[in-house]
Automatic annotation (TrEMBL):
PANTHER family: NEURON-DERIVED NEUROTROPHIC FACTOR, PROTEIN NDNF
InterPro entries the record matches: FN3_dom, FN3_sf, Ig-like_fold, NDNF, NDNF_C, NDNF_Fn(III)_1, NDNF_N
Organism: Ciccaba nigrolineata
Domain Fibronectin type-III: 179-316, 437-545
Keywords, sorted A to Z: Glycoprotein, Neurogenesis, Repeat, Secreted, Signal
GO biological process per UniProt: nervous system development
Transmembrane segment boundaries: none
Gene: Ndnf_1
Phylogenetic classification of the source organism: Eukaryota, Metazoa, Chordata, Craniata, Vertebrata
Any Pfam family the entry gives: NDNF
Superkingdom field: Eukaryota
Name recorded for this polypeptide: Protein NDNF
GO function term, MF aspect, one: heparin binding
Region forming the signal peptide: 1-17
Gene Ontology cellular component terms for the protein in this record: extracellular region
Amino acid sequence: LKMSWFWFYLPLHLLMAACLCNSIKAPNTSSQQSFKTDLFNFYHSLILADGKETTVHLLKDIPKRYYFFLEEGRALSPFTITVTPCDVPIEWSILVHKTSASFLGKAARGDHDTQEVSKSQRSPSMVSTIFNYKGNSVETYMGMSSHSALYMLEFLSTERDTHITVYLATDTTSGHLYPELPMDPRIDVIGIGHTTVTLTWKHSPSVLQHRENIQYCLLVNEKHNYKSLCAAETAIRSSGMKLPPTLALSLSPYLLEPQQVMILSNSELSIINKVSSGEVRQTCMGAKNTYTVPNLSPSTQYYFDVFVVNLLTNASAAYTGTFARTLEEPEPKVMELKDGKVIQVVLDGKKKKFYSLQYQARHKKVQFTFQLCRGQVQVHITKNNKIVASENISGLRYFSLKGKPLDTYLVQLRSTDESNSSIKVQVSPHFHKPLFPLLPESLKIKSFSKLRTCNSVTIAWLGTQEESKYCVYKKTIEEDQVWMELQSADRCSGPESRHKSEKVLCKYFYDINLQRAVTTETITGLDVGTLYLFDVYLFGPSGIPVRYHSKVVKTRKKC
């Protein structure tokens, strides 16, 4: 407590010393002038600006103090202090010294004596705490001063380094820095859908009076509500991205960061920040107090905060935030599979939900064929509600099942990849008429490093006991494109998707002895030191191709 009084009186002592320097008649040396300047600069740096929002940076466990005083002749003068924490909870308090401001006015005029100074120093009982608060809510203290007084504001953060904003107003007749909130500042949820939530709130008096300078801005996220706009911005920055200074002024496309997406729809500008904890959406809708939030994910809880923002001062006030959970996505319709018909299904990698296909057998034996086109897919097959097959599909896979006519099969597909996956599905009772060609043991293409030259490479692949057609395609590729090209390759696409200039040759071959069912091909006319991507397509009796795994080979630089 003694230390607290010491810090309270410190600025008085500094000001006294500075004023005494004025009264000492000594040569005007540079050191004396520097000393006076340092004292006054130190003291005035502690004075809280009146009628202006001040940003205060706090270090953990280190209190910071600001001062202001109300002069004589301002009887019953009202004043307000608004403190906005921008991150963690803080502690702050207001202390008042009821006689020091009188001395301060005299000291500033050089009208003082040491007796009065010492009397002021010996009156700790005149210092009292009139307000204290701990938390992270925006808090406003409204006071009334009937005499001159010096006030001290002390701020402390015990959790971590942080920053706050402080606004002192001693002239309450000049209007409000912060937009006003209505008597009931709650946000009402009036509609919930699978991908939308409709909100409404009561109008701010400031919007009704100054419609052209005040607007509403909405912030949507999946984490929690924010009690102030600066708290929301701090949270977004701490997640690893940069954010324009404030929501109200961040609507210029020139201020957008790479992690931000801007959407303009119906004269409303939305900015979506891509952060590690999910999306944080900012939307400003002018003076409208009802808004439907679009493009949400089903069965997801969202938190909604509305801020009324003064475009001239950039000051804002927060409504009481709310939250809502979107409705669950309706069960997908089960698609019917027909004999011999091939369908291709694209699966969402983010949702990880099953896609269902149904088939009613007309024969005792059925065969399901799956060809993986892209990504990774998990397959479950149930017969009359009992699981008969479950597997992660790689390449081409057949399931031959036995049952009874009119048995009901349900095929469920799910992507196990982060990105979207794609797969072709076919069911048929005709085992003797396969849709896809007979496959070799491996679909890998091999290259021979020792047979590489500056303008040719030699590749090989396995064949089967069935005579089939094989077509070779090539294209040049850059080093930094290899990974993306191999990952995004659609293994179900045929040569019709390739440019004619990429075709190298087509050939037929087979061998009854599988040990000798291997073919090689030397591709000539290549460029020196160039990277090539080679593909081989196998065609069966039905004409549907199967694509081997792509092979990347580089010709030699020197020969």
